[in-house]
TrEMBL record:
Keywords: ATP-binding, Nucleotide-binding, Transport. Residues 3-232 form the ABC transporter domain. Belongs to the ABC transporter superfamily. GO terms for molecular function: ATP binding. This is ABC transporter ATP-binding protein. InterPro entries: AAA+_ATPase, ABC_transporter-like_ATP-bd, ABC_transporter-like_CS, P-loop_NTPase, RLI1. It comes from Aquimarina litoralis.
């Protein structure tokens, strides 16, 4: 499996780009796509899923230009859009049968497949109730289930863990890890902890451009020796934030513990082991 995005742009208005001259080569495995709101994650994923077309550039899956031959992608695609809508009057089982029919899945075992997915996503108990009565997290899990109906080779999840509680996040993570090793799986988020335990590769984007793309460990090396903790008086925090990249703060009785990124630590700082969140903030704040 090989997905090549070559010099892709998406222009939304006269001077408004959702994505600008964006290139990335993706191979099998799990790719985490990180970026702040408006970075262009959904714009990119929709084009890969052939739900929208680039204004410039090409997208190639296994040597097939999917802008010209969208069906080549669609046949092997599972896609959870960010704004996934469901039909409130259908129950989970009916809904998945309906999507299977739309996708033209002529699998005799589709009922069994649906049951397995409902089980895997902890929805069996609710399968006979109308989706309109589901919680947000349950609806999201129905959206996840429909991506996997056709045993896809390319699976795209745009913000899959929104609305999921911690237990369901773990369940989702396990489900993704069980997907065939031969698949390309892309998941987007703006929350680092959603992807850091699951993604092999991480791409960080901002303002329609790719800031960095590498193994997690390589990205973390960017902030090696640059992450510190220091205790400062509360009234200094605003000023401190203006002059440093602050990752997090924790209140103590007297002072505030600040985790921050800097080339040169201020006096009294203690070096910290860097993580992906540090690298993410470093890259997105510096650019
Ligand atoms: N249909 C559209 N028309 C005009 N501008 C758009 C459209 N869709 C997206 N944009 C703009 O393109 C940019 C990228 O948007 P996109 O939705 O791809 O970002 P995102 O990374 O998915 O953000 P989020 O984390 O909020 O989902 C934003 O500036 C957005 O306002
Ligand atoms: Mg989005």
């Amino acid at each position: 499996m090989r997905l090549e995005i070559k010099n892709v742009s998406k222009k939304y208005g006269r001077n408004k780009y959702g994505l600008k001259d964006f290139s990335i080569d993706i191979e099998k495995g799990i790719l985490g796509l990180l970026g702040p709101n408006g970075a262009g994650k959904s714009t990119l994923l929709k084009m890969i899923a052939t739900a929208s077309k680039p204004t410039e550039g090409v997208i190639i899956l296994n040597k097939n230009n999917i802008i010209k031959d969208a069906n080549y992608m669609r046949k092997q695609l599972g896609f959870l859009p960010q704004d996934f809508g469901v039909y409130p009057n259908l129950n989970a089982f009916e809904f998945l049968q309906y999507i299977a029919a739309l996708k033209g899945i002529a699998d005799q075992n589709i009922k069994l497949k649906i049951e397995q997915l409902l089980y895997g996503l902890n929805l069996l108990d609710a399968a006979k109730k109308p989706i309109g009565s589901y919680s947000g997290g349950m609806k999201q899990r129905i959206g996840i289930a429909q991506t996997l109906l056709n045993d896809p080779k390319v699976v795209i999840f745009d913000e899959p863990t929104v609305g999921l509680d911690p237990e369901e996040r773990v369940r989702f993570r396990n489900l993704i890890s069980d997907l065939s090793q031969e698949c390309i799986v892309i998941l987007s988020s703006h929350i680092v902890s959603d992807i850091d335990t699951i993604a092999d590769q991480v791409a960080i984007m901002k303002n329609g451009s790719l800031l960095s793309y590498d193994h997690q460990e390589k990205l973390i090396q960017l902030v090696d020796q640059k992450v510190f903790e220091v205790f400062i008086p509360k009234e200094q925090l605003v000023n401190f934030k203006n002059n440093n990249i602050v990752v997090s703060t924790a209140r103590t009785e007297q002072k505030i513990a600040v985790r921050y990124i800097s080339e040169i630590p201020i006096k009294g700082s203690i070096a910290q082991t860097p993580n992906l969140e540090d690298a993410y903030l470093y890259l997105t704040r510096m650019n």
